[in-house]
Amino acid sequence: MLLFWSEEHIEKWCKDWNLSRGEIITLDSCYRLAQAWYSPDRREPEWRRRTIDEAEALFVELGFTSSFWRLPEN
Amino acid sequence: MDAEQAQIALDKIVRHHVYDYVMREGLPPTITETSSALPRSLAEVRASFQRLADGHILVLQKGNGEILMANPFSAVPTPFLVKAEDRSYYGNCIWDAMGIPAMLQQDATIEASCGCCSTAMNLKIRNGSLEEARGIVHFAIPAAHWWDDIVFN
């Protein structure tokens, strides 16, 4: 997940790396994702990774609703 | 306590140590440091690191079993330098870099750059909020494949 100056810079980067364009989100959305993902204290014994359903629910809550954000079944 | 319960209990102790250490020191602990601190044998710590990596909690360096990533922290320099109140850290990506002040509950400045042209792009977190700044974030790999190659991702 990289930071870019503009969409034009993303287009150039994708071309240079021969990659399809993925999903673009705003800085504010990324920060809300980071806050939600990393605020729970990982030092605590009861901490655990989110389940697939919990992670997908968070993505939906943040407005990430396309198939890009679907996680694999374990 | 059976063997499996003992492993789960050890993994919680190791996870606590890893995150407590990296939040204090800026870099994750080594196997040797963790072994001395807990104290547990090198083999026990190495096995615990591996179980935590299998559970996608840590990412290990190939070959030596040392920590490469204790998300959101990186053990090696990256283009995402996070300067918090009294310590600097490296994030694995922009998502992780933003996650470091969230985890620390501290203000921070993220010294990053454009993935295309390397133009410096600094972001500031103040009082839990991201100050307005130019930039957008690109996720190249669909979520279903993030762990296929987490280092590239």
Architecture overview:
The complex is a heterodimer of chains A (74) and B (153). Chain A is mostly helical and 74 residues long. Chain A has a domain at 25-74. Chain A has helices at 7-17, 27-38, 52-61; strands at residues 2-4, 23-26. The model of chain A has no long low-confidence stretch (mean pLDDT 94). Chain B folds into two domains: 3-68, Arc Repressor Mutant, subunit A (Orthogonal Bundle); 74-130, Bactericidal permeability-increasing protein, domain 1, CATH 3.15.10. Chain B is of the alpha+beta class. Chain B has helices at 3-25, 31-37, 42-54, 94-104, and strands spanning 59-60, 67-70, 73-74, 81-83, 88-90, 108-113, 120-126, 129-130, 136-139. Chain B has a five-stranded antiparallel sheet, with helices on one face. In chain B, strands 1-2-3 form a three-stranded antiparallel sheet. In chain B, strand 2 and strand 3 form a beta hairpin. The longest helix of chain B has 23 residues, at 3-25. The model of chain B has no long low-confidence stretch (mean pLDDT 95). Chain B is globular, with a radius of gyration of 17 Å. In chain B, helix 1 packs across helix 3 and helix 2 packs across helix 3. The interface between A and B is large, with 46 and 46 residues.
Number of helices of chain B: 4
Q: Characterize the main sheet of chain A.
A: none
Residue-averaged pLDDT of chain B: 95
Q: CATH superfamily of the largest domain in chain B, called what?
A: Winged helix-like DNA-binding domain superfamily/Winged helix DNA-binding domain
Q: How many strand elements of chain A? A: 2
Bin the strand percentage of chain B: 15-25%
* Biggest beta sheet attributes of chain B: 5 strands, antiparallel
Mean pLDDT rating of chain A:
94
Q: Which oligomeric form is depicted?
A: heterodimer
Q: Could you name the CATH topology of the largest domain in chain B?
A: Arc Repressor Mutant, subunit A
Overall CATH class of the largest domain in chain B: Mainly Alpha
- If strands are numbered along the chain, what order do they take across the biggest sheet of chain B? 5-4-6-7-8
Total strands of chain B: the figure is: 9
Largest interface: A-B, 46 and 46 residues
Task: State the shape of chain A.
Answer: elongated
Radius of gyration of chain A: 15 Å
Helix share bin of chain B = 25-40%
Radius of gyration of chain B equals 17 Å
Q: What is the H-and-E element order of chain A?
A: EHEHH
Helix content of chain A: 40-55%
Termini Cα gap of chain B: 39 Å
